[in-house]
Amino acid sequence: MSDQRTLLVVEDDEGLQRQLKWAYEDYEVVIASDRKKAMDAVRLHEPDVVTLDLGLPPDPDGTSEGFAALEEILAAKPDTKVIVASGHGARESALRAIAGGAYDFYQKPVDIDQLGLIVARAFQLHDLEEENRRLARREANTELGGIVTASETMQKVCRMIERVADTDVSVMLLGASGTGKELLAKGLHESSGRADAPFVAINCAAIPENLLESELFGYEKGAFTGAAKTTEGKIEMAQGGTLFLDEVGDIPLPLQVKLLRFLQERVIERIGGRRQIPVDVRIVCATHQDLETMIADGSFREDLWYRVAEVVVRIPALAERPGDPVLLAHHFMRKFSSEMNRKLKGFEPGALSAIETWSWPGNVRELENRVKRSVIMADGNFIGAQDLDLSEDHNEMPLNLRQAREAADRQAIEVALARTDKNITSTAKLLGISRPTLYDLLKQYEIEV
Ligand SMILES: Nc1ncnc2c1ncn2[C@@H]1O[C@H](COP(=O)(O)OP(=O)(O)OP(=O)(O)O)[C@@H](O)[C@H]1O
Questions:
Q1: What pLDDT, on the 0 to 100 scale, is given for residue 374?
Q2: φ, ψ at 173 (rounded to 5°)
Q3: Which residues, listed in sequence order, are joined to residue 278 by a DSSP beta bridge?
Q4: Residues in domain Sigma-54 factor interaction (predicted)?
């Protein structure tokens, strides 16, 4: 008995109640004779399919109780398939019921066989929709802000961010480059009460030190040579919303003082300006650097740390999220295939094992880039390890010396970026070149940081 599906019959006519109860041997038929009893039964039995007579007491000749019941059932359990009984000539109410979310209707007097078919189809459709929902949930595995993950640690990170989203506490996201810090910061913003206001991100490491102050605080016309017109800084642009300071560890000390003052007083002065402008922003920061060591050696202010890190969230590297590389590879393959109009079906087994075993020093960004390139490169329907550039075979002859040099440059830059977690100053140092030269090369090779 227990594995039978429950069919809720909402009907006040006792004769019909009996008839319907015995007609459906395949289901456990639960009867309710008015709206209140119907709702009690919905809560108790959670039926997937309900047949509903619109004429219920205390309005057995009208439809008011029936429509109210329909609304309440769908509000309580939106996936319920409600089949509405329409009295003689009451086609209009039947159509109104469909418009109100009912699945189907049947004409009274009841034709048991016909109703039986409608009920069976309703159960089938319900199951199909449920299966689709389940697949979509598993398929997408998407968390806050479009984070794709199957990893428990990462899901905990998302839960934690959701929990603090609606408060105004400052959040510090700690994690290596490409682990999804910006995506999480955006997710936090979108789940917060500030979602309708701007989300403004600034990568403090990507902006030359001398420009960072004006980027953050803005400037008045004529404040310095080249200040042709008054310009708002990123802090002001984020008014009412969220300011995301990426690579906050790269902010030079004098600017840290200025930022701290803003966080204490919540007013800014543009460079060259005298007016104090109140700004209400929520601060989210991120860094791949070890700020505790920086605080100890005096290169990051402790008082600023306490302002910007009321809640600290540590984001695991991709290699520490079992299952995620393959899950994300599929996600990016679908995304890029549809963007580029390519009909790829998946990955070759060799590619999947290469994805699983690769150490992913550049984390999700590296995976995203490799899959993007592979979607362009793949010859057939499936992506191979070579398309991902994850195969051992690197013996191909370059076209000419220039191409060989370019490839070597590019590889050296990418390795240095990965090793320094994309810190521009350290990358330039590691490569023995100046910051401006590195910027030129990044531009020339179209390497994103
Ligand atoms: N879990 C994820 N699901 C889907 N896409 C992701 C996920 N994590 C990261 N991405 C994508 O990977 C790329 C890199 O992520 P993001 O820019 O958020 O990383 P980051 O940690 O802020 O990097 P950086 O420190 O270098 O700025 C983005 O295109 C982002 O959309």
A1: 95
A2: -100, 120
A3: 267
A4: 147-376
Distance 64 CA to ligand 1 centre (A): 53
CATH of 5-139, one of 3.40.50.2300, 3.40.30.10, 3.30.565.10, 3.40.50.300: 3.40.50.2300
For residue range 134-166, what is the model confidence (pLDDT) as tens digits? Answer: 665 555 556 777 899 888 899 999 999 999 999
Ligand 1 pocket residue status of 182, Cβ below 6 Å:
yes
Q: In this structure, which residue's CA is closest to atom 15 in ligand 1?
A: 180
Cβ of 282 below 6 Å from ligand 1: no
- Average pLDDT along the chain: 89
CB 431 within 8 A of CB 438: yes
pLDDT confidence of residue 394: 44
| Nearest of 16, 15, 36, 38 to residue 7 by alpha carbon | 38
Bridge partners, residue 148, by sequence: 142
Contact status, residue 161 vs residue 184, Cβ threshold 8 Å: yes
Fold of 321-393: Helicase, Ruva Protein; domain 3 (1.10.8)
16 pocket-lining for ligand 1 (C-beta < 6 Å): no
Return the residue whose CA atom lies nearest to atom 9 of ligand 1. Answer: 180
pLDDT at residue 49, as a whole number: 96
Pocket lining: 246 vs ligand 1, CB cutoff 6 Å: yes
